[in-house]
Amino acid sequence: VEKILEVNQVKKHFSAGRGQVVQAVDNISFEVYKGETLGLVGESGCGKSTIGRTIIRLYEATEGEIRFKGKTTKDLKGRDLKRFNREMQMIFQDPYASLNPRMTVGDIIAEGLDIHDLAKGRERRKTVVELLRTVGLNEEHADRFPHEFSGGQRQRIGIARALAVDPDFIIADEPISALDVSIQAQVVNLMKKLQREKGLTYLFIAHDLSMVKYISDRVGVMYLGNLVELADSQELYDTPLHPYTEALLSAVPIPDPNNEKRRERIILKGDVPSPINPPSGCRFRTRCPKAMDICANEVPTWQEVRPMHWVSCHLYQEESLKKEEGQ
Ligand code: SF4
Ligand code: MG
């Protein structure tokens, strides 16, 4: 399998004034393979949007390296930067806020065509109409304004706008969180269909675990700026290793109540600590039902503990368990 994106030990810190630093994303590493959907889940404030925005260069990484199609994205310039800006697109959570209310839908969708000089005049109109049809809308919608559309339709417009420049990689930042449940599946199914037809790769950011499992080939779980677990989505749901993943999954209703895998609900104590002063050692330790002494003193390393199943937790590190026993 071909890697399309590599994220290597990336940190994104923001200044919070008075010398304080928000460690929004801290030491994250993962890869995305061409044609797959990698889901990223976690509670709000865990850094999942921040990593998405850092990957697409809306933010500059504080440390670490991001490679797209084998090339670092840090110093892209001129033609390479232009190509990157076309090949990687983003779909946002709030389709209304991200669509200019004064522009017609046709002009919104054609923005990328204009910027990248891909089509003019009649060709431009034709492309817009094709894009509208691709996302389940029609020509008549091109001359209307965003406020005339429902939330689901607006998200379709956002998708058409992203597709206009023929991207390879789409970062979808909670694309369905603002939509009615009945509309969510329609948008996700549209995204899956487009992926098959166009060979797209998705980074799908969400807090809803059930929808993420449905759309993703692999799923990564984030907590307080760290990636804590990453695995094939079925494996992650069947055999979660990290105590935080276990807790998150215990809250997801399982469709079949007779299923033996039905889990007991794990209620986590306390709130997510501030990313300004995160706990020492493992950031989850203040809430972890399985925390040990070593968890306060040493940051667990990101390890592949089974083929393609990564986790950062001392419970799965022999060295850590030995030290813990010796105490
Ligand atoms: Fe819990 Fe320790 Fe594992 Fe962190 S490293 S998740 S505190 S057991
Ligand atoms: Mg967010």
Automatic annotation (TrEMBL):
GO molecular function, one term: ATP binding
Record carries keyword ATP-binding: yes
Source organism, top-level taxon: Bacteria
Gene3D superfamilies: P-loop containing nucleotide triphosphate hydrolases
ABC transporter domain sequence ranges: 5-249
Keyword terms: ATP-binding, Nucleotide-binding, Transport
Similarity remark: Belongs to the ABC transporter superfamily.
PANTHER family xrefs: D,D-DIPEPTIDE TRANSPORT ATP-BINDING PROTEIN DDPF-RELATED, TRANSPORT ATP-BINDING PROTEIN
Protein name: ABC transporter ATP-binding protein
